[in-house]
Amino acid sequence: MALTKADMAERLFEEVGLNKREAKELVECFFEEIRQALENGTAVKLSGFGNFDLRDKGERPGRNPKTGEEIPISARRVVTFRPGQKLKARVEAYAGTGE
Amino acid sequence: MTKSELIEVIATKQQHLAYRDVEVAVKTLLEHMSEALSTGQRIEIRGFGSFSLHHRPPRIGRNPKTGDPVALPAKYVPHFKPGKELRYRVNGEG
Predict the structure, then answer these.
(1) Would the CB atoms of A83 and B77 count as touching at under 8 Å?
(2) Which helix (H) or strand (E) holds A39?
(3) A98 pLDDT above the threshold of 80
(4) What pLDDT was estimated at residue A99?
(5) The pTM is what?
(6) Which of A59, B28, B50, B84 has its CA 20 to 30 A from that of B37?
(7) What is the pLDDT of residue A97?
């Protein structure tokens, strides 16, 4: 089972002592403020976890995979995530059986 | 925006919480997420995105200084796929 906002709120309730409503709101606010910063064009750097960066991509040729028809992919801004050293090291130590 | 700036923004929006509680909460959230990924668990946040692990098969690398081959074992790396709302908002379609 994937980790969800509900699981995260539950942990804040158990470990930080926020009440259930505060915990739910805080989790919501955490993700919303990261989205807001990225929407404003600001990268978000969470040391120990990773960086959410923005990249501007130019228009490039693409095609409809169903019909094979050529259609340009418009210029766009995208979010990329670069995991930090600490997270990479922890994940690397995971032996598998996952995906 | 850094972690401490994020904590400050959240604290100004959650006036009823002490700054210290917001700080501990944000650190707890990030630790919970890191812990999930490092035990092979996915993270799914609707409207934000999902984090999963991608497998990297073993390969022969090289010591860039000496050019000697080095056997590198298989590993997992964290991967983030932005969700629809985040993709649209970042691209000015929100």
Answers:
(1) yes
(2) helix A20-39
(3) no
(4) 46
(5) 0.91
(6) B84
(7) 64
Can you tell me the ipTM of this complex? 0.91
CB contact under 8 A, A8 and B55: no
- Residues on chain A touching B17 (C-beta within 8 angstroms): 18, 22, 26
pLDDT for residue A94:
87
Divide the 94 residues of chain B into consecutive groups of 10 and give the mean pLDDT of each group. Answer: 98 95 97 97 97 94 92 94 97 86
Give A44→chain B minimum CA distance, Å: 5
Which residues of chain A lie closer than 8 angstroms to B14, CB-CB? Answer: 22, 25-26, 29
Q: What is the torsional sign of CA A39, B4, A49, B32?
A: negative
Smallest CA–CA separation between B25 and chain A, in Å?
6
Q: Is B41 on the interface with A (CB under 8 A)?
A: yes
